[in-house]
Task: structure prediction
Amino acid sequence: MLLVDRVLEMEPGKSGIALKNVTINEAFFQGHYPGVPIMPGVLILEAMAQVGALVIMSEDPESGRIPLIGGMEDVRFRRQVVPGDQLMIHIEVLWRRGHVGKIKAVGRVDGEVAAEMLLTYTMRQGKR
Result:
């Protein structure tokens, strides 16, 4: 399930900005919550992780390696994300040592922080 609509900026291996247009047509709004549609927090985190993966993989797309989540820290939800919102996702790679690294991810709606986290990842060999 791809939760990113467009990549706006990319500095391979360092940073990126992408957006998710949140529409009422999203399947998850059918049950979360009936009559009060709110984008599930776990899907906001997943969207941020997907943009992080794009930034990390853009540095060496031919390596055959894929990033896997190793952990999340300091996860905070600051505002709800609802239909009609444009979730702007900002990623910054904080450090990378070998096949392990950490990114800072922030999702904003209208300039206001909706969610933020630190994500540790590891690069693993993908299928060939």
In short: The longest strand covers residues 112-125.
